[in-house]
Amino acid sequence: MTAAPRPLPRSNRGNLVTGFVLSGALAIVACTALAFGCLLSAVFGNTQAGTFLAAMCLVALVGMGITQWLYIIPLGIYYLRKRQTRTASGLLIGALLVTLLNLLVWMSLGRLHSRQPF
User: Fold this and answer.
1) How many C-beta atoms lie closer than 10 Å to residue 79's C-beta?
2) 19 vs 112, more confident
3) Is residue 117 left, alpha or beta, with left meaning phi > 0 and alpha meaning psi from -120 to 50?
4) In sequence order, what are the residues at sequence separation of 6 or more whose Cβ sits closer than 8 angstroms to the Cβ of residue 66?
5) 92 half-sphere exposure, CB direction, 13 A CA radius
6) Distance in angstroms (rounded) separating the CA atoms of residues 111 and 43
7) Integer Cα distance of 22 and 19 in angstroms
């Protein structure tokens, strides 16, 4: 009969705040990289590469709340495998907050756009 695994000491489960801050920092880095990509698309102008970069930047910026999951999910799995569940939870909470903020921005822009002029 195998014994149940002993729980890890509290210090090895990670830190909720670390995951939350890491999620926010990665969102800032991703936005900066997307802004740099948009700048490069302006440099390339009307070339095929410039058009492609502009389209990719627009799609990523519009859906920042969704595209962030491309790096949050693997990072969360990494911390779960290291059994740092609190850090993984902080990542999840931070990513959900960014997604909700993105949703609120697009909802408010939709309301502003749908209003009739005087």
Assistant:
1) 22
2) 19
3) beta
4) 99, 102
5) 12
6) 33
7) 5
CB 75 within 8 A of CB 24: no
- Tell me the three state secondary structure of residue 81: helix
From 13-17, 43-47, 64-68, 88-92, the region with the lowest mean pLDDT: 43-47
Assign 14 a pLDDT band (cuts: 50, 70, 90): confident
Do 42 and 50 form a contact (C-beta atoms < 8 A)?
Answer: yes
pLDDT in tens, 102-117: 888 778 777 666 665 5
The token pair that represents 63 in the structure block:
């859906």
